[in-house]
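[agent] plan:
  1. take the single chain provided in the ticket
  2. run structure prediction with default settings
  3. attach structure tokens to the ticket
  4. add a short note for the reviewer (M.T.)
[agent] executing step 1
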Amino acid sequence: MRSEFDFIQNLKNKYGLSKVGDDCAVLSKDDQTDMVVTADMLVEDIDFRLDWTTPELIGSKALSVSLSDIAAMGANPVFAMISLGVPESCWKTQFVDKFYDGWFTVARHYDVELIGGDLSRTPDKIVIDSTVIGHIAKGKAILRSGAKPGDSIYVTGELGGASAGLMLLESGFRYGKSNQRKKQLISRQLRPTPQVVTGKQLSALGLATAMIDLSDGVSSDLLHICKMSSVGARIYFENIPVNSNLAEFSLNAEQQAGLALSGGEDFELLFTADEKKISQANFQGVTRIGEITASLGIIEVVHHNGVSSLTPKGFRHF
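[agent] step 2 finished; step 3 output follows
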């Protein structure tokens, strides 16, 4: 069965869609500035469930996932549009008001202005469409296609927390009735933090050669960079920065690293760069997890007991 990624690729090829393929489309604004534009959709019972979150958190996440795409381009978010479809039963509650309270909390933090959107009724499920527009200096957007053999591979933050939080929610745990470690994991799932500041720093310093946000997991998102850059990659399993709260689970070190590699929705940044430049810039908060190779489309994982191929295991809609 074809995946959504196969469908998008076929659509690009069929209609010659040259601006599709990165976290955002890059469009010329004027002689000095480019615009980057992204769109994301969240659907009830696919991307969130009302019994494990709040309207405010849904609103904040709806904007944050789009801001993460802007961050992956190294751009500054400026404008946003939000379209919301809700069933009549939901309209009769305070859901929409609280949703926008959460949305505007994030918008104010990143100085993003709401410039439009739509509101409609749906038969039974909530549907959210988020669009964000950012600005970046002309030609400075960080694409997925710039990785070169010899570049090092880096990630920001710790990985696997959001996926573990989802596991807890699906097992019946809730934020208000969990211990501190579980709360932090659930928060990673329900209240992601887009790495906007780090993305802008990488762009301003000219450090990243390619970048993507970790929405589907390292195993899937790194493959996108490899395909767009016509390269391969080698990952060092023991270098993966595992979320420290995964100790809450009865998992050995290898299982924890596996969750960090394949779990999605961490919304950290994965990027490639010259290791010497990262060192000279004394760039903090990132972990080197591997290097880019010339083996087109092949991602190797180096373990203490050998080398294996990395198979994409991130979330797929179809």
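[agent] step 4 note for reviewer: The CA atoms of residues 41 and 129 lie 5 Å apart.
[agent] ticket updated
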